[in-house]
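pasting input
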Amino acid sequence: SQQGEEDPQALSIQEGENATMNCSYKTSINNLQWYRQNSGRGLVHLILIRSNEREKHSGRLRVTLDTSKKSSSLLITASRAADTASYFCATFEGAGSYQLTFGKGTKLSVIP
Amino acid sequence: DAGVTQSPTHLIKTRGQQVTLRCSPISGHKSVSWYQQVLGQGPQFIFQYYEKEERGRGNFPDRFSARQFPNYSSELNVNALLLGDSALYLCASSPGLAVSYEQYFGPGTRLTVT
């Protein structure tokens, strides 16, 4: 079953603009991860944020986590055409769990 | 260093047949997980193997099975294929048992069942 729900399902922006994607989840988590997938191929890990962290940065990426609202957001600043991809959030619940639970993803299109 | 590799890249099978998909993890990684991704959806967890033992199983029927070899490579087997098994099958590896760290994904095997 899907744990996270990304919003919006699809997003189209101009190159240079910022892109924000949101993820909501249902259960308590140990950490939340964001992945990128190009053209239905393998996923690439972008960033991991732990349940005791509120914000994390990596290059042009900024992730926030609000455990009280069970939600996270991924901000990509100064987007490029190469950022065109599907973005997924994935949650890890913690001890006793052996899986990442993915959302349905946000399809981002960056127009040159 | 080579990343996670999967074979074959594409596969077409007929309903009722059996299929075997293969995965080689990154060198030194002992954990392999399998995911199924249906078009338009996120990946769904099937299995995790660590040190040749099954450590986790998702909500999939017994037609799905897997194993891990002494060199940590893995095979996913699906018997009695159904049309609904058509999907991208992804393999991911990580250094240790816990999936609390990032997973390294292979390019996937696209299975089409006709």
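fyi Residues 91 and 112 of chain A are 32 Å apart (CA to CA).
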